Amino acid sequence: MSIETMFPENFLWGGATAANQIEGAYNVDGKGLDAQDLMPFVTKEERNGKINMDLSWEQFNHHLNDESGVYPKRFGIDFYHRYQEDIKLFAEMGFKVFRLSLSWARIFPNGDDEKPNEKGLEFYERVFDECHKYGIQPLVTLSHYETPVGLIQRYNGWESREVIDHFVRYATTVFKRYKDKVKYWLTFNEINVITKSPYTGGGIICERAKDPVSVGYQGAHHQFVASSLVTKIAHEINPEFRIGCMLARVETYPGTNDPADVLLAQHENNLNLFFTDVQVRGEYPTYMNRYFEENGIKIQKADGDDELLKAYPVDFLSFSYYTSLSVSTHLDGEASEGNIFQGKVNPYLKTSDWGWQIDPIGLRTALNDMYVRYRVPLFIVENGLGAYDAVENGQIHDDYRIDYLREHIRQTGEAIKDGSDVIGYTTWGPIDLVSMSTSEMSKRYGFIYVDQDDEGKGTLARLKKDSFYWYQKVIQSNGREL
Asked: How many beta carbons lie within 10 A of that of residue 480, not counting itself?
């Protein structure tokens, strides 16, 4: 099936991962523990339809010292030892870009060490060199839910302003080390998640917070400041660097055409886009003043913070998009399942195996709305379908994944035709990896199957799915052949 929409000639096709979900080797070559190393596997029955990505102080200490539990993000898919094999497969698909994160604790094991771990730096150097061997550009996330455990213990993560300096030291170290190997950088993955799950987004344990009501937004403010500081430093180290922010974009619709629902949807979209308003426009939007006041949220700023945010905004806006939400002031209507973002069931949409509503047109809407709002380049750095895959005679026929991605890519092309400046698209994740929200392996996203179960058992053999060959053709045709 072909479409007329032409993607830009230099469009960046690829896939996206995170260190904590693929690397493994959690105790190898001097790596310290990070927040995700303490997240255990929880069965579907134990979850009972609920996702909890935060830890209490008691749970944190239990998991820190537990020798018997299953912690899938500690073993990942062993990318640490198999990166050459995996990058070769990405190259076979024709990737122009590979998004990955650096494990802060692999480079600064405690987060606040004075000197970096050379073996950690060398590992990423090898990974980048392997990418360049095939003409693949690395797109590097500095912080992808991987707050070092040492910073959680000493500072309660990003609640403390002191963490900014440690992040700046870490970022400066890698900017200098990889100034000729990496062009595209993201500061904080899905920065808005810190207000939904403070532990995930900022290594914050709420019961330890001085102000639990405000701590998510306070942590976000510290990340805003850190982002601006490292954007300034990055451009000084290499003017060719391009620094982006990263948002979990959730397009929100009114559940009915009741004006109260329209107003509620506008409010929810503003709460979602608040983070990019700060990082792209360089200032706190006035609409948040009332929200902060009515919800008892107090942000502590230092002198010069607002000027810093204004002076050093990001160069481009990247975001994840998986689903849309509907909201309503009316009490009737079934609540949708899914991740930490909740809404009402939209009867016009299908759902995934995990209850996430599938809405390709919502991606076009999101792209057009954000381009009109910000007028900066947009980069879709996560989009994909988590599903159960069955191996049949050594093959995986994942037409459902192809259908999902085809329609989202089609709508991306339509948004480009509408006039939105979209510079790239990286699917989540190009190879099966450990789920961020549930630590499952059985929730599979990849074009490449990994023989491993939820408890880490399996051969780790890689197997190409039908979608592997489909995406290969998409890239070869620059989006014309879907």
From this structure: 16
Tell me the β-bridge partners of 317: 245, 378
Q: Which residues of 368-389 are buried (b: 16+ CB within 10 A; e: fewer)?
A: bbbbeebebbbbbbbbbbbbeb
Place of tokens 């062993």: 78
Q: How confident is the model at residue 351 (pLDDT cuts 50, 70, 90)?
A: confident
Has this prediction a pTM greater than 0.85?
yes
Helix axes 259-276, 287-294, angle to 10 degrees: 100
- Report the distance separating Cα 57 and Cα 78, nearest Å: 29
| CA nearest neighbour of 280 among 370, 159, 167 | 370
Integer-rounded Cα Rg, in Å, for the chain is 21
Domains of the chain listed by start with CATH number: 12-476 (3.20.20.80)
- Alpha carbons within 13 A on the beta-carbon side of 255: 21
CA distance linking residue 76 with residue 439, whole number of Å: 10
Q: How far apart are the first and last CA of the chain?
A: 5
d(CA 424, CA 415): 13
Q: Enumerate the H helices of 278-432 as residue ranges.
A: 287-294, 305-311, 360-374, 399-418
Close Cβ partners of 53 (under 8 Å, ≥ 6 residues apart): 39, 197, 199, 200, 340, 436, 437
The CA-atom distances, in angstroms, between 152 and each of 200, 203, 211, 247, 250 are 11, 6, 16, 23, 28
- C-alpha distances out from residue 377 to 1, 245, 361, 372, Å: 28, 11, 20, 11
- Distance from C-alpha of 439 to C-alpha of 355, rounded to nearest angstrom: 17
Give catalytic status of residue 382 as yes or no: yes
Cα 305 to Cα 248: distance, rounded to the nearest angstrom: 24
Whole-angstrom CA distances from 127 to 181, 225, 433, 456 are 10, 29, 18, 24
DSSP string, 285-325: -THHHHHHHHTT------TTHHHHHHHS--SEEEEE---EE
Among 130, 382, 414, 440, which one carries the catalytic annotation?
382
Q: What DSSP string runs through 93-116?
A: HT-SEEEEE--HHHHSTTSS-SS-
Give the pLDDT confidence of 96-113 residue by residue, as tens digits.
Answer: 999 999 999 999 999 999
Could you tell me which residues come within 8 angstroms of residue 442 by beta carbon, excluding any fewer than 6 positions away?
388, 453, 454
Cα gap 259→275, rounded to integer Å: 26
Among 346, 350, 348, residue whose Cα is nearest residue 336? 346
Q: pLDDT tens-digit profile of 435-463?
A: 998 899 999 999 999 999 999 999 999 99
User: Helices 118-133 and 79-93, interaxial angle, to 10°?
Assistant: 20
